[in-house]
Specification:
It is built from seven helices and two strands. The chain is mainly alpha-helical. Strands 1-2 form a two-stranded antiparallel sheet. β1 and β2 form a beta hairpin.
C-alpha cells in the first residue's frame, strides 16, 4: 500500500471520576528526554498492527506485502533532508527526532519485514538515526533473522553490541 503508517500521539490526560473531569499530566518538571522510550514503545505498538509476513504465500491472493520502498517511504525527514528539499535553512529549528520510528523498525523485524532492507539501508539508519532507531534496528534484525544463523546480522550485532 502507498499509504504512510500513522503513529498516534501519546495521550497524557485522563478522566477523574465521579465528575469525569479531565486531568492532564504536567510535563514542565519532567526531563527533556522523558518521552523517548514511551514514544519508542508507541512506535512498536503501531507497527504490530501490520500483518505477519508469510513467505510461503499461505495468506491468499489479496495479501499485501511490505517492501523496501514502503519502509523507506515511512522514514521520517531528517534535518539534512529537510533543508535540502526546501532549498533554504531559514527555519532556525531542527525537526524533533522521531523516537517512534525506531519502535516501528523493531515491529517490522518482529513481523518479518525488516529483511527487505539492504545493508546500505541498515548502515544509513545506524549512522543517521537516534538511539531508539539503533535499538530498533538491532532488535528488529535479531528477531527477523532468529534461528537463521545469518552471518551478516551476527557480525552487525557483535560489532555494535558490547
Amino acid at each position: 500500500s502507498a499509504e504512510q503508517l500513522l503513529i498516534p500521539n501519546i495521550v497524557l490526560a485522563g478522566r477523574v471520576p465521579p465528575a469525569n473531569g479531565t486531568l492532564a499530566l504536567d510535563m514542565t518538571s519532567c526531563p527533556a528526554n522523558f518521552r523517548v522510550w514511551p514514544e519508542f514503545h508507541n512506535g512498536v505498538a503501531a507497527g504490530l498492527r501490520l500483518p505477519h509476513n508469510h513467505a510461503n504465500g499461505a495468506e491468499g491472493k489479496d495479501r499485501r506485502t511490505i517492501t523496501r520502498t514502503w519502509i523507506k517511504f515511512n522514514k521520517p525527514v531528517t534535518a539534512a533532508q529537510d533543508s535540502s528539499s526546501s532549498g533554504n535553512n531559514n527555519s532556525g529549528q531542527a525537526p524533533t527526532p522521531s523516537y517512534a520510528h525506531g519502535g516501528f523498525l523493531m515491529a517490522l523485524g518482529l513481523r518479518g519485514y525488516l529483511s527487505a532492507l539492504t545493508t546500505t539501508d541498515l548502515t544509513d539508519y545506524l549512522t543517521q538515526g537516534t538511539i531508539t532507531t539503533t535499538a530498533g534496528i538491532f532488535l528488529g534484525m535479531a528477531a527477523n533473522k532468529r534461528g537463521s544463523c545469518d552471518p551478516s546480522v551476527s557480525k552487525m550485532l557483535c560489532l555494535h553490541v558490547p
